[in-house]
Amino acid sequence: MADDLTLSVTVVYAPQPRQVCEITLQVPPGSTATDALRQSGVLVSLAAEEIAALELGIWGRKVPGNQVLRTHDRVELYRPLTVDPKVARRERFARQGAKGKGAGLFANRRAGAKAGY
């Protein structure tokens, strides 16, 4: 009967690339996303300007801090992007790029195969 009194939610934050902090919490019904963040303690190690730059989401969708949580919600903190993904892709292609004959997905075709296979 303890499950009726609390909701199980997960708070996820990536402070740096390739590093993820995931904390599972039990919160009372009616708790908001901000309440879960405070209870998780993730914000304690961050400076005020870092906290102001963060975005909040649940399961990959941005939500306001007053969003009421449901059981098994995944509260996520999003850092601001340092590089535009489109620019990063262009730069990566320029480095790897079309180096001579055969670049791309279908570069290594079998002899006699149809185009695109």
From TrEMBL:
<dbReference type="InterPro" id="IPR016155">
    <property type="entry name" value="Mopterin_synth/thiamin_S_b"/>
</dbReference>
<dbReference type="Pfam" id="PF03658">
    <property type="entry name" value="Ub-RnfH"/>
</dbReference>
<protein>
    <recommendedName>
        <fullName>UPF0125 protein RS694_10205</fullName>
    </recommendedName>
</protein>
<comment type="similarity">
    <text>Belongs to the UPF0125 (RnfH) family.</text>
</comment>
<dbReference type="InterPro" id="IPR037021">
    <property type="entry name" value="RnfH_sf"/>
</dbReference>
<dbReference type="InterPro" id="IPR005346">
    <property type="entry name" value="RnfH"/>
</dbReference>
